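Quick one: structure for this chain?
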Amino acid sequence: TIKGTLGAAVQGASDGGERMSGAEREFDIVLFGATGFTGELTAEYLLRTVGAKGYVSWAIAGRSEAKLDKVKQQLAKRVNEE
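Got it. Here's what it folds into:
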């Protein structure tokens, strides 16, 4: 479902179409490139500052589902450590 939502959001923004309103968005923040070095640092920052179930909803996105799963596992491990 995330891929469909992101695809619609990106297409609407890039082709001059109507932008999605805040009420229509599934996430407040989508971190693209979450599997890269900077993306992983940013995901960890979001986790520490906003949290997993904070007032801001956020998601990670990337080209490799396997790498995204690895990032999610690392983030979950950090949550359990705290």
